[in-house]
Amino acid sequence: MILVWNILLALAILVLWPLAIIFAILGKHRLLCRLGFVPKSYGKSVWIHSASVGEAGVSASIRDMLKEIDPTVNVFMTATTKMGLRRLKAISAPNDRFCAFPLDFYPFTALAYNRNKPDLLIVVETEFWPNLLTIAKKRGIPAILVNGRISQKTVFWAKRFPRTFRKISDCFSAFMMKSEDDANNLISAGVPPERIQTLGNLKFAGIPANIEPIANFGRPTVVFGSARPDEFEAIAEACISIKSEFPEALFIFAPRHLNTAPQARLSLEKHGLSVVRRTTNTSPENADVYLIDTIGELLGFYASCDVAFVGGTLADYGGHNPLEPAFFAKPVVFGPFSSSNREAYELLLDGGGAIEVNDAESLSIAICGLLRDSQTREEMGITAKKLLDGMGEVALAYRRAIEEWVSR
Q1: 261 close to 347: Cβ distance less than 8 angstroms
Q2: In the structure, what pLDDT confidence band is assigned to residue 82 with cuts at 50, 70 and 90?
């Protein structure tokens, strides 16, 4: 299957090569990095790879741990998506090396290894790239999965193609999973339990302690964070219902991906909501919606709001990180689709720090109830924050586990 993967990629490269050159000229693609021309490394090196924006925060946490363990280690970080790469740039330290993840085609990935020469590969969550992992194994480079997440869909494909999954999973020396459910899914997929540890969700450790509120808007403020296109209509409908009781409310709307911001604006304006985009540097004082078409500011807006809705939950995207608004003592509202972070959602829901809704109507009812009752709102926020206090040990557990591999 890996040979087939490389053959298909080779054919795709032959067909799409002219388009790649155009993108490179226009500056929309980091072509050299994608071809394997990553920054060179000298001395002891660790390669950390993540997918996108959320996982990049975990990469930064791991980088900090590595520097504590061994200040001389060279850390090299990659991200698959352009948004993830921007996030790495935003959170990078002066001496950090980072670039776009090379296309997982054998010659490109091998070149990246030749230039970077890592002593350890750390993969965040679910980035099971065949060449990245098989080359590491052939060269005797330990690979560990950190904050591991394995869905039922992955288990389905693992059972359908057991030999391929076994070949890829055997490249990992250790699996450090974020929940018991993920660990059990990995065991169901055929990985021996003795190679698996359940350490908790490291995304919480990736929330910087020095985040300050963006602003005090002086009006009831609701954040719709990491919203996905299939949720835009339902959120817009909920906003209209909320405004009927709280006409002065401000809705801070943060799409998960910037390229969907125009679609979000159309959906909101279609329902009669006035929209101000963050990038226009215009005050949202007279607007219904403040559309956040920037990167890296969502946490600051969570810190500024009264109620937070976490996106990717009204449509089947698995849900984004509910611990982010909880960190700032905000009551959390979310939809029925939360499989990607189920343990975190259940922690907040069972503890009384969150409310689960099903659709636009129940979303507006939940938010209106919280805006109406300041005491309940405050108690839920405090509860959500307290529920996270016990998670401070998660980062320490990961640090100790990673240290074992760095010290080898």
Answers
A1: no
A2: confident
